[in-house]
């Protein structure tokens, strides 16, 4: 509930700033660059964030991140009320906020993971994604109303205040006590160990590679919604809000049924189906001739994206013991951030030269070709297997 309130504020800011940058610059590359700056820190800082989350008290560490993000949002709010908002300032704040989020989110994700049994982690991850996407439904709607009535400053103020809901929620959460038998690793040794485990586990390696290509080739549809609504469909802030809301509605709907789907098909097989269908749905979305058709398409695309990404995320954490879960989550975030920041900027830059529809359709086709090729060359990787955690020994002085 705390994260939901915060995400409503975050999506109010995201929509408001996306519309502001698109209308101010008129360039898809600028919109894509601002989005990329939020995810770029994950490329470098994510492994450090995971190691720190496994090293310190996760609840206190996540609370520190919420305080810092509230402070950055507050700076943006003050500048907006004073009429000093600009695209470079938005880019800088987005980058700094991305740094804080990258360093502290692994603690939040690992905190959620330790509150449920391993066999319910996929469902837990999906429900967490559901609240995130419920924020995607409510936030853009409130953003559209706020922009129409009073401008972007009030949307930014709402985001600033929303972080306090996370602090209240964290104060009420009682995590499991740490196992005193598990010794604390030196920081850089912990980072290296996390990377080594991910590299040596074939399932985790495959999941991380898949995550990168999803993020780079398909996921930019999220950040480029304002460009699609304004430039391709000839609409404005209300249309941007509608498309973002429909994507969130699709994701929430999928989250309610993902547990049943995973039990029916198996997590790995479900992941394979979702990877194949997302490329097709992405192509259909980019071909949508009207706002109404695009809204329906992005609903199903958002549902498919939720199923695929929650499966990929849960697979990383479910393969390792508790003391490594934050590090696996941080590696997942690093790959996701690297692929998404590269993809959304690159597709935005190409869209200014070759057209958004052509570029997005091409990347969707490339992703579909990669998935089909993998299915033909390594069909066993798409079959169902057990979801037991990997046999990874806890850290000890001798293993170090």
UniProtKB/TrEMBL annotation:
Pfam family, one: MFS_3
Main location: membrane
UniProt domain Major facilitator superfamily (MFS) profile: residue ranges: 1-381
Keyword Transport: yes
Subcellular location: Cell membrane
Highest taxon, organism lineage: Bacteria
Membrane among keywords: yes
Molecular functions per Gene Ontology: transmembrane transporter activity
Transmembrane segment boundaries: 33-53, 59-81, 88-108, 153-174, 206-230, 236-258, 270-287, 293-316, 328-346, 358-377
UniProt cross-references to InterPro entries, sorted A to Z: MFS_dom, MFS_trans_sf, TM_effector
Membrane association type: Multi-pass membrane protein
Protein keywords: Cell membrane, Membrane, Transmembrane, Transmembrane helix, Transport
Gene3D superfamilies, per database record: MFS general substrate transporter like domains
SUPFAM superfamilies named among the record's database cross-references: MFS general substrate transporter (SSF103473)
A GO cellular component annotation in the UniProt record: plasma membrane
Record-given protein name: MFS transporter
Species this chain originates from: Corallococcus terminator
């Amino acid at each position: 509930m705390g994260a939901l309130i915060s995400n409503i504020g975050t999506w109010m800011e995201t929509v408001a700033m996306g519309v502001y940058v698109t209308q101010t610059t008129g360039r898809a590359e600028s919109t894509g660059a601002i989005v990329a700056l939020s995810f770029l820190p994950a490329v470098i800082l994510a492994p450090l964030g995971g190691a720190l989350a496994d090293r310190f008290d996760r609840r206190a560490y996540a609370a520190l991140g919420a305080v810092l993000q509230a402070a950055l949002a507050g700076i943006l709010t003050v500048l907006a009320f004073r009429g000093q908002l600009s695209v470079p300032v938005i880019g800088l704040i987005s980058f700094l906020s991305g740094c804080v989020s990258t360093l502290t989110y692994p603690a939040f994700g690992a905190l959620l993971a330790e509150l449920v049994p391993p066999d319910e982690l996929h469902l837990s991850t999906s429900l967490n994604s559901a609240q995130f996407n419920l924020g995607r439904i409510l936030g853009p709607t409130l953003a559209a109303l706020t922009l129409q009535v009073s401008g972007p400053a009030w949307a930014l103020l709402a985001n600033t205040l929303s972080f306090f809901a996370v602090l209240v929620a964290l104060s009420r959460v009682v995590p499991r006590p740490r196992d005193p038998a598990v010794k604390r690793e030196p920081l850089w040794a912990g980072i290296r160990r996390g990377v080594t485990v991910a590299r040596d586990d074939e399932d985790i390696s495959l999941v991380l590679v898949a995550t990168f290509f999803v993020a780079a080739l398909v996921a930019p549809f999220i950040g480029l919604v304002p460009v699609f609504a304004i430039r391709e469909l000839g609409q404005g802030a209300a249309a941007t809000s509608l498309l973002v809301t429909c994507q969130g509605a699709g994701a929430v709907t999928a989250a309610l049924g993902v547990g049943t789907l995973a039990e029916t098909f198996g997590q790995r097989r479900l992941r394979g189906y979702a990877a194949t269908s997302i490329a097709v749905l992405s192509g259909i979305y980019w071909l949508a001739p009207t706002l109404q058709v695009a809204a329906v398409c992005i609903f199903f695309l958002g549902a498919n994206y939720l199923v695929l990404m929650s499966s990929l995320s849960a697979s990383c954490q479910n393969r390792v013991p508790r003391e490594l879960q934050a590090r696996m989550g941080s590696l997942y975030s690093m790959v996701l951030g690297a692929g998404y920041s590269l993809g959304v900027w690159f597709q935005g830059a190409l869209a200014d030269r070759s057209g958004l529809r052509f570029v997005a359709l091409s990347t969707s086709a490339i992703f579909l070709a990669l998935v089909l090729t993998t299915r033909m060359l390594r069909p066993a990787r798409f079959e169902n297997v057990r979801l037991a955690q990997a046999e990874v020994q806890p850290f000890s002085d001798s293993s170090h």
